[in-house]
Amino acid sequence: MDVDTEPPATRDIASRIVTPGTLITSDPAYMRGHGTFVENTAIYSSVAGAVERINKLVSVRPLKQRYGGEIGDIIVGRITEVAAKRWRVDVNSRQDGVLLLSSINLPGGIQRRKSESDELQMRSFFAEGDLVFAEVQSYFADGALSLHTRSIQYGKLRNGTLVTVFPQLIPRSRNHFHSLPCGVDVVLGVNGYIWVSKHVPASTIEENSEMIYSDKNEFISDDERETIARIANCIQLLNRLYVKITDTSIIFAYEASLGHAVKDLLTQDIATDLAHAVKSRLDQQA
Amino acid sequence: MASLVLSPAEQDFIIRGIEKGFRGDGRGNLDRREVTLRTGMISQASGSARCRIGNLGVGTDVLVGVKAEVNAWTPGEPEALGSVVCNVECSPSAAQEFEGRGAEEINVELTQLLDRVISRGSQGAGGLDLSALCIIPKQAYWVLHVDALVLDVRGSIADALVMAARAALMDTRLPRVVVETITDDSGTAQAEFDVVDDAEDLVALKGVSGLPVAVTFNQVGKRYVVDASEQEEAVTQAKLTVAVSPALEICAIQKGGIFRGFQPSLMSEILQTAQRIAKEELTRFVALYEEAAKHKEQQSDGPSTGSTFLVAF
Fold first, then answer.
1. I need a surface site. Which of A122, B43, B66, B239 has the fewest CB within 10 A?
2. Would you say B193 and B136 are in contact if contact means Cβ atoms under 8 Å apart?
3. Which phi and psi (to 5°) does residue A61 adopt?
4. How does pLDDT run across B100-128, given as a tens digit for each residue?
């Protein structure tokens, strides 16, 4: 990395990749943002990432970062602990999130009030190890995320498998639950946990409000199982080759992968080829 | 290793998939993942190797170093044999449950396993020639310290461990030892040895190509899988690690898992399958080791750190 000795007007300091300790600029006009520190009016990077500049604010966006958590994020979490009137949830962040008993839908209708017996049988709703599809409602005083599942599409996840990816590859969007054309549902948790499952029509879920906390899977045919495995492998190769994971990129990867056996998708050569095919198709589309 | 807790729905999904012979990543029950092998990265060790089982740069990662020392013989020890001392440690950064004293049990289990496979299992079964490690009978011998560090865990630690240990021992070079017989004034013949201090004058270990490879079979429901992922290990009820020599003889067996035992008929089926898979694994190992040797040659001037080990992408 070259020391930035040219005046900023002639060279844009943004979009450089820097490592911790790299000098970004020594012009005192700039203010320092996240990922930087100041020594003797010069701004240095404190993380490994790309430099971003907004007017006079200089910051560095790290290439790899723990999931932080914003209010309104749609996430997938795993229950780690059942405590008094709440569950602790692993959300792939610095701290476990909290799901309060008052924040979940109780079986028997959304309007049903919480009773004392509900407190005593919390494991009948969520037990340790269960996967939950939730939204971030607020923060606790210590920064832990408070989650809720107060909507019919949220709740316990079934009929599929979990894929863990880098959180920064999942852009925040309006919709995080996608029904892909190949017959597989995908839940893209912003925290990097992705749930790939068999497609279950929404009407089935609504009819059985008593069954929302069931642990039983539906019957999954061989073809559905293969498609789920194929999509899971596509997501994993997009993750390892650092391609943004959206429903579009997953569909492109799936279509490009159809010529290969499912188990070969994760071998280095084929994965690299597929990732390049997806990237070029995304570029064309843009 | 009951580390990962899965939901009942996930467990059911995995078990049913294995019953159909179609695992979560599309592999069949006997298919194995990719293996990356590198040797010679620890310059201060007599031999070293790093083995990663897993695809796309992520997987179970084991680093093994071999250090040779000369020991003085004490009465009670075998008179004309060297020895091998194994030690396996799971790094606390490999998995959350290894923090503090959490890894104690698994360290002992894996050390016993490596011991069985490398030193005990191979004596007389065509493995490491321990008599070649003796310098002067009843006086001095080589002791090989085989130290393994588990850096990352994604299932199948035993297989990666044995593969890395095998590669490290194949990579090991001992300094040449010159033994002289000196007759002193009173007429008694005394043997003395001298370790040649020349970095170019090194000797490989005898019998290394006879070392076994290990294949671990995990029982899930009524079927078994080879090279289990972390999720599959979470639903495993019992596992059997079988070490098979290049002569296709079974050198060591270690059963793990406290939830249930094996039916004898299933065990004999597993042992038969182990021979077949071990043959394929040995062929694959030879190719991997050659590639690692080529890599080592090209990198002889570069830094010998593990960062060059990562798959570039």
1. B43
2. yes
3. -90, 115
4. 888 999 999 999 999 888 876 555 555 78
Interface predicted TM-score (ipTM): 0.88
The pTM score is 0.88
Predicted local distance difference test score (pLDDT) of residue A7: 46
Query: B94-100: long-range contacts (C-beta < 8 A, 24 or more apart)?
Result: B94/B61, B94/B150, B94/B151, B94/B152, B94/B153, B95/B3, B95/B153, B96/B3, B97/B1, B97/B3
CA distance B280 to B261: 27
In order of A27, A157, A191, B165, the CA distances from A167 in angstroms are 34, 19, 5, 35
Q: How far is A79 from chain B (nearest CA, A)?
A: 9
Q: Is A267–B13 a contact, with Cβ atoms under 8 angstroms apart?
A: no
Q: What is the DSSP string of A184-239?
A: EEEEE-TTSEEEEEE---HHHHHH-GGGGG--PPPP--HHHHHHHHHHHHHHHHHH
B-chain residues within 8 Å CB-CB of A222? 20, 22
- The residues facing A148 across adjacent strands are A135
3-class SS of residue A99: strand
For residue A179, the SS3 value is: strand
Contact (CB, 8 A) for B151 and B38? no
Cα B141 from Cα B129, distance rounded (Å):
13
Tell me the C-alpha distance between A199 and B175, whole Å.
64
Does B34 contact A at CB distance below 8 Å?
Answer: yes
Closest chain A C-alpha to B10 CA, distance in angstroms? 6
